[in-house]
Design a protein that fits this description.
mainly beta, Lipocalin, ten-stranded antiparallel β-sheet, eight-stranded antiparallel β-barrel, 3 helices
Length: 268
């Protein structure tokens, strides 16, 4: 099991919520989630969308291989960039992720079931079944078929090229790059996405963040919230005494930086 650092409370106790988080995020050697809880982490989890503050990973799902190009077709978790046009985040660099499984299953968003798994059943339960489909590559052309009764196949040439010691690909006017798991030591420090506030991860397992990143209620850009954090694979678990638990995905682009909460972050 990977290294863990947990911040006890003032009485030297590890919070119950954090202990549950650690149990859920248990990984076996090789990075595949093998220890599955007898029941979901939260009975409400299947109906909560992945961006919801109430989202909880179910602890089950399809194994997600590391991103790679295999026989001319992508497998694993990939991302492509865009620029936000919304509210306080206008102008910030954002991204979308897509999942390509070796058996030809495609998912137009990433709902983690565990640190390195994708929860397709959870997507269906949350009403996201239209984002699940299939993909294939033949003769240099990739075809994606989304779910939904009115969906139509979309085909375009797929162009693979080397980039920073790895490979990226272009398809349908998008440039896809591999979404790489983040090492724990890479998180340590203060990060910003270009908007107000930021997040500071510390080596002792504590974290301080702009409150509005995690709280749906009214808050000023200068308001902060303190808590603890855990990292396993693509999953970040936070415990904020003032807000409760939050589970989010994180990955590292090839150029460095951090992809988290829908935006690209840089270390300051």
């Amino acid at each position: 099991m990977g290294h863990r650092t947990v911040v006890p409370n003032s009485r030297g106790e590890i919070p119950t919520a954090t202990r549950r988080s650690l149990a859920l995020l248990c990984l076996a050697a090789g990075g595949v989630l093998l220890a599955t809880p007898a029941r979901p982490f939260s009975q409400e989890a299947p109906t909560k969308r992945v961006w919801s503050k109430d989202f909880r990973p179910s602890g089950s799902g399809r194994p997600l291989p590391l991103p790679a190009i295999v026989d001319g077709r992508p497998v694993g978790l990939w991302w492509y960039p865009y620029v936000s046009n919304f509210g306080a985040t206008r102008g910030a660099a954002g991204f979308d992720t897509e999942v390509f499984l070796p058996d030809g299953t495609f998912a137009g968003l990433f709902r983690p079931g565990g640190p390195r798994s994708v929860d397709l059943d959870g997507m269906r339960a949350a009403g996201e079944q239209d984002s699940i489909g299939s993909y294939s590559v033949s003769g240099g052309v990739m075809t994606i078929v989304w779910g939904g009764k009115s969906s139509r196949p979309m085909s375009a040439p797929v162009r693979v090229q080397p980039f920073l010691g790895s490979q990226i690909f272009e398809w349908a006017d998008r440039q896809y790059q591999p979404a790489l798991p983040v090492r724990r030591d890479e998180l340590i420090g203060h990060w910003s996405n270009g908007s107000a506030g930021g997040i500071t991860w510390r080596a002792d397992g504590s974290v301080t963040a702009a409150r509005y990143f995690f709280d749906d209620g009214p808050s000023r850009a200068s308001d902060t919230v303190d808590g603890s954090w855990e990292l396993d694979g693509y999953l970040l678990a936070f415990h904020f005494p003032a807000l409760g638990e939050r589970f989010l995905t994180v990955f590292r682009p090839l150029k460095g930086g951090l992809a988290f909460k829908g935006f690209m972050w840089t270390k300051k």
